[in-house]
Amino acid sequence: MTTETFAEFEPDFITGLKAIFEERIVFNKVLGLKILALTPTGVTGRIDMRPELIGHYTHNRLHGGVISAALDAMAGLAVMAALGARHMDEEPLQRLHRFGKLGTIDLRVDYLRPAIGQHFLLTAEVMRLGSRVASVRMEFRGDKGALLSTGSAAYIVS
Amino acid sequence: MTTETFAEFEPDFITGLKAIFEERIVFNKVLGLKILALTPTGVTGRIDMRPELIGHYTHNRLHGGVISAALDAMAGLAVMAALGARHMDEEPLQRLHRFGKLGTIDLRVDYLRPAIGQHFLLTAEVMRLGSRVASVRMEFRGDKGALLSTGSAAYIVS
Amino acid sequence: MTTETFAEFEPDFITGLKAIFEERIVFNKVLGLKILALTPTGVTGRIDMRPELIGHYTHNRLHGGVISAALDAMAGLAVMAALGARHMDEEPLQRLHRFGKLGTIDLRVDYLRPAIGQHFLLTAEVMRLGSRVASVRMEFRGDKGALLSTGSAAYIVS
Amino acid sequence: MTTETFAEFEPDFITGLKAIFEERIVFNKVLGLKILALTPTGVTGRIDMRPELIGHYTHNRLHGGVISAALDAMAGLAVMAALGARHMDEEPLQRLHRFGKLGTIDLRVDYLRPAIGQHFLLTAEVMRLGSRVASVRMEFRGDKGALLSTGSAAYIVS
Fold this sequence. Notes:
Chain A is α+β, with helices and mostly antiparallel strands and 158 residues long. The first copy, chain A, has helices at residues 11-24, 26-31, 64-86, 92-97; strands spanning 34-38, 42-48, 54-56, 61-62, 103-111, 119-129, 133-141, 147-156.
């Protein structure tokens, strides 16, 4: 996915969410994590390969921690988008405040194939958004679409 | 734990392992991950808080991804130490090559409490080292010893 | 899915696998787990609700342990089918012996919605079949197709 | 552990909890799961080997699903004991009603060694009891104390 898609969200919400996610959550910036698509049921992001992200120096392989960190961030973003869609009655800024209340309960990552490539695409889909807990599934793909890692995570929402 | 402990490993093995882990695995350097202790059954590491590692800007809270990335790295190191102890008959350099063959199969992290503090201590303990798979449990603690996160991971060894 | 599908596998392999899975693995029989479909990339099974499987007596809800046990069993079966397809050169009986060497490394189950219904459908899909480790994703659905639980698991194969 | 320990809980609470856990949660009865100890921070249980629990017929090995099911049940019991201790001001019966509101969010089990033996001991320890979510770690041991499996789980409490 190369074009950006932001469903029915207002420009203010999108701009605010991108600013928080890509800039103010400093470690996401270290990861170079960018939002490509944002919809009530799922989100897509991208990471470009950079030397700082290497885990396996002999193969220029992405560090597994970059994958777990980025999948966790994307899953949180997916929950945020789902919450944003559920509360369209609230002002964009008010909805953005919900991000601060989001907390990861736990995370699982399965490493299927070595993460080698120029860039990587990440997707996260909310399997269930409850009043207190959200469950999300994530995928981490290579620049040719190969599935490199999958993830599952639970979030506390309020 | 503040003093370094390196069991019976030779200086060459320790020096080589620290060089690989703290310097050549570039993303570990981004995390600022340092080895404090290394024994056949477990390892201890430390991360000092830095602005780049922030996940929650309003609370200067550590990014969950730093925790998952660092726990994965520490668990891999624990497996490496266990393998190193099992193959003391090999030359240090030969044993270090095993690091390149290590692969994370999957990882789980439970986030118990907000990671806020000046520094953090990480421990990883090998629960079982098989001929093909190793299972590890990890803990992430605050500068006062509070348990902030726990983890479990499986590694392919050969 | 209600009709049975068994891809290109020989009758002897199918009959043998069903006998092992549904009868000789005694606890699968306790669960009432039946194989509906078996292909190299995935499998489908079914469980009919019975009083012995109740976890929550006030709601006649299926015990979470029935879900984790059945998803683990189905994931192992999916790996077995993938191995069976990879070794079609071997005699059916020879391929069936591989079942005995299969071992679960670890399992994760996410409980999304209460499991209430007359029967349940389970699917397992092999995400990657390596020479030593296989990774599988599973789904547990209600009699109307609602997604009730999801799972991820890793298996040692040899 | 062979003697029963029930901390400061009233006989009514213990009797009621054992009746719910060992009898009314029917699938726990199928597992033959018995409570040995119950304290605010952790619980211990026991399962005696029976033919119905076999997963691997050639080795009379316990089915992995018995382990995941029993560890999930024990973890829920540990949360129940922690909740019971937090609400000693409530009547025993009132506290027991909290059991019905408990829900497993997700579960991880690591299978370390084959589960073969006459009986098995299970322990579950609450790592954190929040107002909405509880995190638990579990262990599954053989009749000689060997660690056979470990688990981690999250529960919704209210």
